[in-house]
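Table S4 entry, Rhomboid family intramembrane serine protease.
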Amino acid sequence: MTTEKRGLLEEIKTHGQLMFGLVGLMWAIEIVNQLFFRDSLDRFGIAPRSFPGLAGIIFSPFLHADFAHLLANTLPFLVLGWWVLLRGLDLFIEVSVMVILVSGLGVWLFAAPNTITIGASGVVFGYLGFLLLRGFFERSWVAIFFSVLVLLGYGSLIWGVLPIVPGVSWQGHLFGLIGGGLAARILPQGMSQAQ
């Protein structure tokens, strides 16, 4: 096996460990939350306009209402997150942090009072926004190709930014998408230096 192939396989293995590790952590937290805490960990989500609710910005992507909610986020998180990760680990971390902060702050500022927002869908929408707009801002054929693929595969998610489904945080979706768009615009273009 050539050094190049070995390096590619090692990179794929590392990416897989990271993405499945994050999803595994979400599933482990939900299992523990359901079995031992009777969903009481959900209180650590984002509580709008309350000082303690700010901590929920960090915790909320790892908390879910139930297994159906987590299952709905798992596949898009893996696919879209992996596509962001293909651009480099440093960029993946930067995009993830920006999306979590923008989505979380948007929810904290604009969600209905006396609610708790949880779930990784803000991050999913952030990855979606990043991948859709990266082709526009970067203007490379590879980025445009991935933008078109994402649009064809996940473009229908865009409707989730509208307040049409009761009990679903359209604010998290909208501000996640905005956070991803901001990341596509302001983060360095081209492949990340750290591969």
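Residues 3-186 form a domain with the Rhomboid-like fold fold (CATH 1.20.1540.10).
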